[in-house]
Amino acid sequence: MSDIQEDRLLSGRTVLVAGATGGIGEGMTLALLRQGATVVATGRSEERLAGLADHVGEAGPGTLITRAVDVGGPDSEKVRAQLSPHGALDGAVISIGDWGSPERAGILDTSDRAWEEMIASNLTSHFHALRALTPLLSPDGALVHLSGFSADIPYPFAALVGATNAAKKSLVRSLEAELGGRGPRVYELVIGPVRTRPRAAIGADDPGWFSAEDLGRHAGRLVARSGPYADAPLQYLVTRAHGVRTTPPL
């Protein structure tokens, strides 16, 4: 696909990014703006949303709209009321949750409190987001959800992240099955480590990883139902060397 085609890919489409102020969400927002979308960027902090707007600047040809909305909160009707002025969405990208503390503990050393906090931040929030956002999508729109590769393989001392990734992957796959082609398309993207601006700032960067903007460009193609993976509800983007796959690169 040429750059000109890519610039026009999402022209006239509205795409919501949940978790837009995170490292991955920020890069995805930038990529979607460059594909011409009107991007409704949501987050819980007005301050961080203002920082996002400063960072993306005039990244167009798309248009950025920021909204302080907690899409992972329990009041789904309130979330939908806050977002309904933007009309039926052509796409929604969900990049929220908790990727785990750097201070990892083994299963046998994990407290009930740590377990419950991870369930709330990295599973229940996704259940709420799916429930709130799916009805806002047009019937021919697309919901793109991100989970980590620990959903499929064990990471020692990261069992809580892995367990919640596996559970939310199952939630999304079940939603896709329940809709059965009678509503928006649902995509589950299982991702590996991602190049982001915050990670680069602390020296955690690897050219073999997909970047957050790579993920955003890919999500944009899915929203537009463009490219070879538009009809694949489950996809793996673990490393550049593996590319995009529909089965785990094990």
TrEMBL record:
It comes from Streptomyces minutiscleroticus. Keywords: Oxidoreductase. CDD domains: SDR_c. The keyword Transit peptide does not apply. GO terms for molecular function: oxidoreductase activity. Belongs to the short-chain dehydrogenases/reductases (SDR) family. This is Uncharacterized protein. Pfam families: adh_short_C2 (PF13561). The keyword Chaperone does not apply. InterPro entries: NAD(P)-bd_dom_sf, SDR_fam.
